[in-house]
């Protein structure tokens, strides 16, 4: 006799309660924000009441749920997804892709790259290629994950002079992203990378030498000290755009600026 199984899906109330707990919001606090009774919100979370699409979207907005997870919640509640998910090379994103290319090119001779939520590189400028020229090309086969490339023993890690501090920074970033998004892939990536690096030093002495933590790379053309900035799209209504970030590096000293200018010129 054939045995059939059905895939269990999380109930929308369970997902909603999970996000409320993750954001450390009480039922009363959230209910006041969206204009419903605490009793009704409690019934929605326990499955005794069915929320409308409008209420679910409003709750997600107040809980700052990422667009991908909003679609998951809507599907669990029996509604069609609200937010599209486009490939970056889709015609609908031509303007966005052109803007990113403009930003990447305009940032040269300093490195800049566009990554998705999990840190996979989707675009990069020439300065990034110059920076990674010291690595085995086999490590640069796509998809290149910027976190793994930075901390793997066969990647940049042996060339990073302040590896414990930089690794601590990246692992903290992954932990924060996993908490904000609830994405299990980020938890798995952080667990993987934790085993690659020594613990970072703690206390004010570890931070006293810099106003910001630089990435300090031993490069054949000269040591590089770089500060990083991260930019996100505002008011994104597409899952792909919501998950993209632009990371730009700027020289922390004149020697680094000169090396980067020479590398890109060559």
UniProtKB/TrEMBL annotation:
One Pfam family from the record: MLTR_LBD
Keyword Heme: no
Keywords assigned: DNA-binding
Domain HTH cro/C1-type intervals: 16-70
Domain of life: Bacteria
UniProt xrefs under InterPro entries: Cro/C1-type_HTH (IPR001387), Lambda_DNA-bd_dom_sf (IPR010982), MLTR_LBD (IPR041413)
Gene Ontology molecular function, alphabetical: DNA binding
PANTHER family assigned to the protein according to its UniProt record, in alphabetical order: BLL4672 PROTEIN-RELATED (PTHR35010), BLL5781 PROTEIN (PTHR35010:SF4)
Protein's name according to its UniProt entry: DNA-binding XRE family transcriptional regulator
Organism encoding this protein: Actinomycetospora succinea
């Amino acid at each position: 006799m054939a045995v059939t199984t059905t895939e269990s899906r999380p109930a929308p109330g369970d997902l909603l309660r999970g996000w409320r707990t993750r954001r450390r919001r009480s039922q009363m606090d959230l209910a006041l924000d969206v204009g419903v009774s605490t009793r009704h919100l409690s019934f929605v979370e326990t499955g005794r009441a069915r929320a409308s699409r409008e209420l679910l979207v409003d709750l997600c907005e107040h809980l700052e749920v990422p667009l991908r997870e909003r679609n998951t919640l809507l599907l669990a509640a029996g509604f069609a997804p609200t937010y599209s998910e486009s490939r970056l090379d889709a015609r609908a994103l031509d303007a966005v892709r052109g803007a990113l290319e403009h930003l990447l090119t305009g940032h040269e001779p300093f490195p800049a790259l566009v990554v998705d939520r999990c840190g996979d590189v989707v675009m990069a400028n020439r300065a990034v290629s110059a920076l990674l020229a010291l690595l085995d090309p086999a490590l640069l086969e796509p998809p290149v994950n910027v976190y793994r490339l930075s901390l793997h023993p066969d990647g940049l890690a042996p060339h990073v002079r302040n590896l414990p501090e930089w690794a601590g920074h990246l692992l903290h970033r992954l932990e924060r992203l996993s908490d904000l998004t609830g994405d299990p892939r980020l938890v798995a990536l952080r667990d993987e990378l934790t085993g690659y690096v020594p613990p970072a030093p703690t206390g004010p002495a570890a931070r006293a030498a810099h106003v910001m933590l630089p990435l300090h790379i031993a490069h054949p053309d000269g040591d590089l000290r770089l500060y990083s900035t991260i930019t996100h799209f505002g008011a994104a209504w597409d899952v792909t755009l919501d998950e993209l970030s632009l990371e730009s590096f700027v020289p922390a000293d004149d020697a680094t600026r000169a090396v980067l200018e020479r590398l890109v010129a060559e």
